[in-house]
Amino acid sequence: MKDSEVGRVKNRAAYFGIFTALALIFSYVETLIPIRFGTPGIKLGLANLVTVIVLFRTGWKDALLLSVTRIILAGFMFGSLFSIVYSLAGGILSLAVMALLERTGKFSTAGVSMAGGVSHNIGQLVVAMAAVKTYQVGYYLPVLLAAGLITGALIGAVAGEVLKRIRNIERI
Amino acid sequence: MKKNDLILAAAIIAAAAVILAIQFFRQDNGEQHVVVTVDGDVFGTYDLAENQTIEIGKTNRLVIENGNARMEWADCPDQICVNHKAVDKNGESIICLPNKVVVSVEGSKTSSLDGIAQ
Q1: Inter-chain residue contact A142 with B19, CB threshold 8 Å
Q2: Which chain B residues touch A110 with a CB distance below 8 Å?
Q3: Which CATH number belongs to the domain containing residue B53 in this structure?
Q4: Is the CB of A132 less than 8 angstroms away from the CB of B40?
Q5: Cβ–Cβ contact A83 with B under 8 A
Q6: For B67-90, what is each residue's pLDDT tens digit?
Q7: DSSP of A88-107, one letter per residue?
Q8: Are the C-beta atoms of residues A134 and A125 closer than 8 Å to each other?
Q9: For chain A, what is the domain count?
Q10: Local mean pLDDT, 10-residue blocks, chain A (172 residues)
Q11: Which of residues 125-164 of A touch B (CB under 8 A)?
Q12: Position A93 in a domain
């Protein structure tokens, strides 16, 4: 390996570490916000901010790795094995949807993140249905769709602003 | 925000509204039951009009009072079902994920349809 290549790999590792740490901090901050909407499963999805930024900046592979790493670590630290399964289902589905929409180039960060928020909630709902073996859980669907839409759009808008401002940071 | 973003948002809101409307029209004012299932199996069916306290195994306690049902106690750490508001409309449910307990309100008409669908 040439010196420049070694430098690039080191850079990538450093960036990835910073993004993972950031995402974990957001996950932690999220647990401190005591919002109760009467419907289980609604949250802001702050950690998703980092996922959206990485998705737009370096692509879906890094975003997926970051997302999975973050969910497993955050699950062990602030959640349970149970919450890891839920978060993984939501996280992977939402990332798949976001990556596809991002590729079309027809949506802004807000639109992509909105679809991500909604599909995240759908993924979790499907796991919940499988866990309790009833379709009654589907009762929450409209509320979860609306919640995913609002939180996703908010996070996406913030991600868009952040991306504008970190343009000068070297591409990884 | 691009134009496509707004179209996507409108589509999601429309989907939510349609599901909400279906849920709304499914309600009827006939006799209502509370169906309790544990891990997918029916634990019991109770009349919503009758005040009663139901012990669901050793994990949850359900109270039916003044035409609505609420989870009074659960042994799980998150207490989401206990904090959940009381339910009284058809299709509404209280779900305790850790204990796999589902409490749902069903009307006399819809319950038979649901029976087939499930």
Answers
A1: yes
A2: 1, 5
A3: 2.60.320.10
A4: yes
A5: no
A6: 889 999 998 887 888 888 888 877
A7: HHHHHHHHHHHHHHHHHT-S
A8: no
A9: 1
A10: 76 88 90 66 84 91 93 87 86 95 93 95 87 72 90 94 81 57
A11: 128, 131-137, 139, 141-142, 145-146, 148-149, 153, 157
A12: yes
